Amino acid sequence: MRSEDLWMLTQQEAAVVPPFVAFAIRQNPGVWDYVKVDAGSLSVDIIMSTDYLKFKEIIFDEKWAKDENAMEIDFGAFDVRVPILALPSSIGSGLGYISKFMTSMLGGKTESAKPLVDYLLSLDRNGEKLMINETLNTVETLQEALMVAEVFISALPKDTPYQNFEQKLKEWGFEKGWGDNAERVGQTMRILSEMLQAPDPINTEAFFSRLPVIYDIVIFSVHGYFGQADVLGLPDTGGQVVYILDQVKALEEELLLRIKQQGLNVKPKILVVTRLIPDAKGNKCNQEMEPIVNTKHSHILRVPFNTEKEFLDHGSPVSTSTLTWRDFLRQDATAKILELMGGKPDLIIGNYTDGNLVASLVASKLGVTLGTIAHALEKTKYEDSDVKWRDLDSKYHFSCQFTADLIAMNAADFIITSTYQEIAGRLQRVVSGINVFDPKFNIASPGADQSVYFPFSDKQKRFTKFQPALEELLYSKEDTEEHIQKETNLFSMARFDIVKNITGLTEWRIFDPSKSQDREEMAEIKKMHALIDKYQLKGHIRWIAAQTDRYRNGELYRFIADTKGAFVQPALYEAFGLTVIEAMNCGLPTFATNQGGPAEIIVDGISGFHIDPNNGDESSNKIADSLRNARGIVDIGIECL
């Protein structure tokens, strides 16, 4: 490839301010350069990110760009704690990198492992020592004790309970936490012995995964209606609620398994902290405490805000972007957490912008390890939202949201992401936001609950009790409060907001806006009605009201699959795409946006199809051609949820 061709591929953006043209060039994910070209002399100068941002700002707000007091944000000073990943292909693989880095630190002289010994000595649970006691305070004494203990344990039957030889190990300096039986204890000791003799990344990661350090977890998921039933589709409430509830169940199962294998008699606690909403509209979001279904030790804690300003008309919660986090903290959520947990939690996790910021503040206050769950910044969803932030700020408060995201990410000890998506947005004058090569980033993609979203061909597991209602919902000839228009072949499920692009899908090919409490949703509903009239689509679209029962939704996917239908996700940008996973799990042929997470979920033409939300003609033709080739369909309609 010629160098000029490569330059064209890596040139991401240009800002034209005569006589100059400034270019943003991304050589690789996370690697940016900026240049300025003089259109008259064709001279090229390398410029800093600050200068490039000023070029962009001049186009939209010259006064702001030239204001000497304009705020600049630079988190570059945070980027000095640990070695940084070097290869773009390694972004999101922080755990593996840290294991290799720690292995390199353990290698060499014996005293190199002293920090590991000190760390093991620090482990306890409510004052009770775990793993080792002060008898084993040097690397040499630990190694010697391990050799003696391994010989002793190897002579025991594998299923010998730990309690049967606990006292003997204690005499040698070992405490609880190594395992629940002779086999598990022997394995853990062998892994540590090998680490101390000849460390390698696999043993390092395996050993630390066995340590008894996590029992109590607090998750902050503050925005929207956080509930277990009758909330999906309400303002600011969607896949993030399903995601957290699924993760809580998986976390509790994993904690119970690990604690058992560690040989401890401890009950874990997981607390999801969110807002209490007085007008809960028939759901349980006005209850302070609620057990999480299908768990034994997990609850939702709802904390009220202390002013009426946090509620719009009709008592609905404000949008994600306008939250007042300080008011949330003034209700002393921290004190309630300490009361319910019986002390500090072992880990605090934040979800979404507001949850991440609250989590970072509480974790700092308590001195607790912080993890955040990264979501796409709104820059990826709204075109030019970085330079047009003033125009959008009154509605979305991006200046607050973007800055909060950057604060939380830089404060976090680790960050969980769903896909390999780089955050390259700029707001105000963000000179350096977050280094995507930081090993704190780890990709851990969520899945769909297999007990709810399973293939339509699995007849024995089907939720047949929903089928009569779904038959009426999808195929009744009469319009009702739950559906309008006729049966169709295509199916899509999403909230009515601009980014989800349901009206875009309609243009390619809640019914009453006055009943909506969300301004953006109201506008999209009106646009939908206008498009139906414009393109004479009555009788070709079946418009279904929001469905809040996830079990029924699972059967809805399968019901569509029974009729050889297909699922379309046309979002302008989708950070992950939980509905894509759900539809594919249920066996629906899936067409999904190529902007964001679905580009990684789907292998185009093999496991599904990518569509370009910015090219309606191409996308509609791709959908129609694929369906015609599959089953000879001529009349194609759209089903919207």
Task: Describe the protein's architecture and organization.
It catalyses: an NDP-alpha-D-glucose + D-fructose = a ribonucleoside 5'-diphosphate + sucrose + H(+). Its EC number is 2.4.1.13. Belongs to the glycosyltransferase 1 family. Plant sucrose synthase subfamily. This is Sucrose synthase. With 641 residues, the protein is α/β, with parallel strands linked by helices. Helices cover 38% and strands 15% of the residues. The strands form five sheets. The protein has an eight-stranded mixed β-sheet, sandwiched between helices. α13 links the parallel β12 (347-351) and β13 (369-373). The two termini are 46 Å apart.
Low-confidence stretches: 308-323, 422-428, 632-641
Question: Taking strands numbered 1, 2, ... along the chain, how are they ordered across the largest sheet?
Answer: 10-11-9-8-12-13-14-16
Shape, please? Answer: globular
- As an assembly, this protein is single chain
Average of the residue pLDDT scores:
81
First-residue to last-residue Cα separation: 46 Å
Strand content: 15-25%
Q: What is the count of β-strands? A: 23
Whole-angstrom Rg: 28 Å
Q: State the share of residues found in helices, binned by percent.
A: 25-40%
Global structural class? alpha/beta
Give the number of helices: 22
- Biggest beta-sheet profile: 8 strands, mixed
Domain Sucrose synthase N-terminal: 10-57
Domain Sucrose synthase EPBD: 94-180
GO molecular function: sucrose synthase activity
Domain Sucrose synthase first GT-B: 204-475
